[in-house]
Write a structure and sequence with these properties.
Layout (H helix, E strand, L loop, with lengths): L1 H21 L1 E2 L1 H13 L24 E8 L4 E8 L21 E3 L6 E2 L12 E3 L4 E5 L12 E3 L4 E3 L14 E3 L6
Parallel strand pairs: 1-3, 3-4, 4-6, 5-7, 6-8, 7-9, 8-10
Antiparallel strand pairs: 2-3
């Protein structure tokens, strides 16, 4: 019985590995990934290879991209998590993140991102958004008022101003919020 279980377990692992390795990132997401990388300054980052499929399993510098390849009969992958921290990225947040429809986790902390959260982001279905330690500014971002899927939001360590707006009550799934605002 134990041998049968071990055989079945090994077969499942092999099939998962085989199908995952043959799947590639969805074409539209690959184009969005390239645009996002270019806007985040990949030209100055030799280790970022934007033409390399981020779902290939190969390391791409300090750009961590996680894919789910269990869609569409394992022939297409989708990005569900991006972590790009401590990279000295100094630009505005790209609105093209909205073109990654399966993205649920985004961590761009400890960079030099500026401006505010793009209004286009209101259509995203993020579960986790971490933007701590950047140079984002302005009032509490309006785009966040409609991100009802968000559970963990960390935007402290930026230059936002003003109090948390009443619309925060729209975030029915919100479990943790880190936001420092000035005392008035």
């Amino acid at each position: 019985m134990m041998k049968l279980f071990f055989f079945a377990y090994t077969l499942v692992l092999y099939l998962n590995f085989a199908f995952t390795q043959s799947a590639e990132l969805n074409t539209q997401e690959m184009e969005a990934f390239k645009v996002i990388g270019e806007k985040l300054g990949a030209a100055g980052k030799k280790e970022w290879e934007l033409d390399k499929d981020p779902c290939s399993g190969e390391q791409n510098g300090n750009l961590y991209v996680y894919c789910n390849c269990s869609f569409e009969s394992n022939t297409s992958c989708h990005i569900y998590k991006i972590s790009l921290t401590f990279q000295n990225v100094s630009t505005a947040l790209p609105s093209e993140f909205t073109k990654l429809p399966y993205l649920t986790y985004l961590d761009l902390s400890r960079n030099y991102l500026n401006g505010t959260i793009p209004s286009e982001w209101k259509t995203m279905h993020l579960d986790t958004l971490i933007l701590v330690g950047n140079r984002l500014s302005g009032p509490f971002p309006i785009a966040l008022h409609t991100m009802t899927s968000i559970r963990y939001l960390r935007i402290d360590g930026n230059r936002f101003s003003g109090p948390i707006p009443e619309e925060i009550a729209n975030l029915k799934n919100l479990e943790k919020l880190y936001y420092l605002f000035p005392l008035t």
